[in-house]
């Protein structure tokens, strides 16, 4: 598949003629800008801190003293972002900021009264009226309290909302919201009351604000009104209108790229065909045409591949054609833009005179099954791959071990039934469990059960697939955990967008092509997370079941949750850091095992979202967040100013920007993790059992009544094909694959100073190990090929 072209997209079109219309800009302010190692850019007022705890900072350390200001704060007036100094790639401090337009809104702001220091859960939020006022009702320990709020300042990226004077008791409350969260009509109505509509400079001020907000359509509409109201200035803005059309075109092209990258090719190609050409610059139209040409080239290539393949098959003996027919029908039915690269080797060599027709056909069949880069020229082996693939699918879908053993015995008769080829088949295998499609009214939405777990019962969960889902494409995935008093369905809505009347969703997960999984993980009426084995099992088994049904990229699975679901995500993420590309706890609270297993946060990126006045969470969470940031862990903390216990949909765009940058590393060369519960026992290629009882604390026995130390496990690989492991566990299982060690060379394994007697010149792969691992973990991209159990030193012995 051709790579997606990159186009420079204008984020703020401030250089258009509006900015040159002899108008006075506000004074240029000073701001700072940092670039993080993951490529994100943060802008705002910069400060260096020693702690996130809200207390005055002490003066800088004396000269010659170690630098303890290891936490960097970026305040953009809406959100305070905290990151580790060690995660910063570059920083520009105190640089001149862009000219930024803003409006002061006339309100009777309360200046005397009690200052809000805690914001309870919001029960009702009325919409803003045309004057920028609303009533917010929150739940407090004194019952329901309603506060009259008014918008007092509007900036392109943030809006200040303050408590207004009322008869009776007043409160002082400065709350910040994202300006983009204001409906366009409401925003226009509020702004219109702050200007003199007969003055062109004030009208243009609105245009500039809309441009800086990237609401180009609103800017153009307001500009059209100005041209009608001030016809004598109409010619002055002709160039501006033309330039705005360029902005629209560039943004439309950017959206096409987003959809194309998400595998939504029908939508992308449809948008390309409807792309507005009138008044659009030739450079942009050329870029559009290049994408159209790439699409058409891919379509034509797919058509030609089918023709060439059929022509070659027609030259083979009739008996061979009969064997090829089933896989040929599958290839022709399922070949599309997402799977076209599997046929790349066939397409490259289909005219090669040095290859026979049989060899070329073999390249096509084997490339389809194990990928173009792995294509084989041996037709009998290619046809054996078909039979082997079917056996693999049957094995993975079979719940009964006795039946799986019978399927396993059939692999011996297949030339392609080797661990190497089976591992390659697994990577391109469609999900083995067939799942009935949902009704047309709810496209892509599933209500499922992942079987039963002892002590848990049926594991119910919900899934929303993105538009144009294709089982031959791997999709990034969000596992999202609901809070108390909410539902899994609301979590789906938060990430993928609320369902429209036709059943479609227009949220960010749909836009970027993410699968969303929402387990019904909590008991009815549950008000807090229990840190239990049952809760862990519900979440993890749900994910495994979904991986068997849908094409989930195991290296791009993110675990998130709100409120007590955020607590669960935080704990489960630290207890099993090998599973996740990142953790996103929202309005979560660190407690119990989260606090004790904090060192595991080194191995999984974390993005925490919280409100400044959400009870004492800012103070309480600061202890652990300080640890992460001071140790240089990949942690981002986003704290919304003046806000409490909310869902923070304001942050969702930034969350996707963050997630799009991350993949897990499933084969780390070294790690050191801690365990406190028997089920916290799997770290990448190590499985642990029989921890010291003094290190294990059952959730039912919390808080611990004795001194204890978490069980620590440390593992590393060395340059001599060796593995060194120290662990408090009495039993250690080492899982092996070619991505970890050279299995064809002598392997040295040391566990707690004891050498594993693996011997020989290498490790013999086990097909039964490989298949059973792929079935049980449901990770078809990274199956293990062999195992060593210590202290016994046994190799490749499978238990029941």
Describe the protein's architecture and organization.
The protein is of the alpha+beta class. It has 20 helices and 31 strands. Helix 10 (379-397) packs antiparallel against helix 11.
Features:
alpha+beta; 13-stranded mixed sheet; six-stranded antiparallel sheet; 20 helices
Determine the structural class based on helices, strands and strand pairing.
Answer: alpha+beta
Widest β-sheet, arrangement of strands: 5-1-2-3-4-21-20-19-18-16-17-15-14
Shape: globular
Average pLDDT rating: 90
Report the β-strand fraction as a percent range: 15-25%
Unreliable spans are: 1-29, 56-66
Q: What is the helix fraction of residues, given as a range? A: 25-40%
Question: What is the first-to-last residue Cα distance?
Answer: 43 Å
Report the radius of gyration as a whole number of Å: 30 Å
Number of strands: 31
- Number of helical stretches of at least 4 residues: 20
What's the main sheet like? 13 strands, mixed
What's a concise summary of this model?
The chain is α+β, with helices and mostly antiparallel strands and 800 residues long. The chain is built from 20 helices and 31 strands.
List the helices and strands and how they pair.
Elements: E1 30-36, E2 41-49, E3 71-75, E4 79-84, E5 88-96, E6 103-104, E7 114-115, E8 122-125, E9 133-140, E10 143-154, E11 159-163, E12 171-172, E13 174-177, H1 184-192, H2 200-212, H3 216-229, H4 238-261, H5 265-273, H6 282-313, H7 318-334, H8 344-349, H9 357-370, H10 379-397, H11 401-409, H12 419-428, E14 445-453, E15 457-464, E16 475-481, H13 488-496, H14 508-512, E17 515-519, H15 533-549, E18 552-562, H16 564-575, E19 582-586, H17 592-596, E20 606-611, H18 617-630, E21 635-640, H19 652-659, E22 670-675, E23 682-683, E24 686-689, E25 711-718, E26 722-727, E27 731-736, E28 748-751, E29 754-755, H20 767-777, E30 786-790, E31 794-795
Parallel strand pairs: 7-12, 16-17, 16-18, 18-19, 19-20, 20-21, 26-28
Antiparallel strand pairs: 1-2, 1-5, 2-3, 3-4, 4-21, 6-10, 8-9, 9-10, 10-11, 11-13, 14-15, 15-17, 22-25, 23-24, 24-27, 25-26, 27-30, 28-29, 30-31
């Amino acid at each position: 598949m051709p790579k997606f072209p990159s186009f420079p997209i204008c984020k703020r079109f401030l250089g258009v003629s509006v900015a040159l219309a002899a108008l006075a800009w506000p004074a240029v302010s000073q701001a700072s800008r940092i670039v993080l190692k993951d490529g994100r850019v943060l802008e705002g007022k910069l400060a260096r801190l020693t702690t996130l705890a809200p207390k005055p900072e002490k003066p800088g350390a004396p000269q010659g003293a170690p630098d303890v200001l290891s936490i960097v704060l970026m305040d953009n007036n809406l959100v305070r972002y905290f990151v580790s100094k060690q995660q910063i790639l570059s920083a520009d401090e105190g640089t001149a900021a862009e000219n930024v337009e803003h409006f002061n809104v006339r309100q009777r702001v309360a200046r005397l009264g009690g200052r809000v220091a805690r914001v309870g859960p919001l029960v009702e939020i009325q919409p803003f009226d045309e004057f920028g006022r609303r009533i917010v009702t929150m739940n407090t320990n004194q019952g329901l309290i309603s506060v009259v709020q008014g918008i007092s300042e509007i900036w392109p990226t943030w809006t200040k909302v303050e408590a207004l004077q009322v008869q009776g008791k007043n409160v002082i409350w400065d709350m910040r919201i994202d300006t983009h969260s204001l409906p366009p009509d409401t925003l226009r109505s509020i702004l219109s009351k702050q200007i003199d509509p007969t003055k062109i400079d004030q009208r243009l001020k609105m245009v500039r604000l809309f441009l800086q907000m990237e609401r180009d359509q609103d800017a153009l509409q307001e500009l059209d009104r100005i041209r009608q109201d001030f016809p004598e200035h109409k010619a002055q803005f002709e160039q501006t209108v033309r330039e705005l059309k360029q902005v629209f075109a560039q943004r439309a092209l950017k959206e096409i790229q987003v959809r194309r990258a998400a595998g939504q090719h029908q939508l992308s190609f449809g948008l390309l065909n409807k792309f507005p050409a009138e008044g659009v610059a030739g450079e942009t139209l050329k870029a559009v045409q290049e994408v159209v040409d790439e699409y058409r080239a891919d379509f034509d290539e797919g058509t030609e591949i089918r023709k060439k393949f059929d022509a070659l098959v027609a030259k083979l003996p009739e008996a061979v054609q009969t064997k090829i027919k089933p896989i040929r029908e599958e290839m022709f039915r399922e070949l599309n833009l997402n799977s076209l690269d599997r046929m790349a080797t066939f397409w490259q060599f289909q005219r090669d005179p040095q290859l026979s027709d049989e060899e070329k056909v073999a390249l096509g069949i084997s490339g389809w099954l194990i990928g173009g880069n792995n294509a084989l020229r041996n037709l009998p082996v290619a046809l054996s791959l078909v039979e082997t693939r079917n056996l693999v699918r049957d094995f993975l879908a079979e719940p009964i071990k006795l039946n799986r053993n019978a399927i396993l015995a059939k692999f011996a008769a297949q030339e392609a039934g080797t661990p190497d080829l089976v591992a390659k088949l697994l990577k391109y295998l469609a999900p083995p469990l067939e799942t009935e499609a949902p009704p047309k009214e709810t496209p892509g939405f599933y209500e499922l059960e992942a079987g039963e777990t002892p002590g848990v019962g049926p594991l119910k969960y919900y899934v929303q697939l993105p538009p144009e889902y294709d089982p031959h494409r791997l999709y990034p995935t969000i596992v999202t955990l609901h809070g108390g008093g909410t539902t899994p369905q609301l979590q789906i809505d938060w990430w993928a967008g609320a369902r429209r009347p036709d059943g479609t969703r227009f949220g960010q997960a749909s836009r970027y092509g993410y699968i969303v999984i929402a387990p019904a993980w909590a008991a009815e009426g549950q008000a807090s997370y229990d840190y239990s084995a049952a809760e862990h099992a519900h979440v993890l088994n749900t994910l495994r079941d979904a991986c068997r049904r849908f094409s989930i990229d195991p290296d791009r699975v993110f675990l998130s949750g709100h409120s007590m679901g955020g607590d669960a995500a935080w704990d489960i993420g630290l207890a099993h850091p090998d599973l996740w590309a990142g953790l996103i706890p929202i309005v979560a609270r660190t407690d119990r095992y989260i606090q004790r297993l904090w060192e595991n946060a080194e191995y999984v990126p974390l993005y925490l979202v919280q409100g400044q006045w959400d009870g004492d969470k800012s103070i309480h969470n600061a202890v652990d967040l300080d640890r992460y940031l001071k140790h240089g862990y990949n942690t981002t903390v986003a704290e919304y100013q003046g806000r409490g216990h909310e869902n923070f949909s304001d942050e969702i765009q930034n969350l996707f920007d963050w997630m799009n940058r991350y993949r897990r590393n499933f084969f780390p060369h070294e790690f050191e993790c801690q365990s406190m519960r028997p089920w916290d026992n799997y770290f990448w290629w190590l499985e642990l059992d029989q921890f010291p009882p003094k290190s294990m604390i059952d959730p039912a026995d919390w808080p611990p009544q004795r001194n204890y130390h978490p069980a620590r496990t440390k593992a590393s690989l060395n340059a001599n094909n060796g593995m060194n492991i120290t662990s408090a566990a009495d039993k250690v299982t080492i899982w092996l694959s070619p991505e970890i060690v050279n299995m064809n060379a002598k392997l040295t394994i040391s566990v707690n100073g004891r050498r594993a007697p693996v011997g020989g010149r290498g490790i013999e792969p086990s097909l039964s190990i490989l298949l059973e691992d792929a079935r049980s973990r449901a990770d078809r991209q990274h199956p293990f090929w062999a195992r060593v159990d210590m202290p016994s030193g046994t190799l490749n012995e499978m238990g029941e």
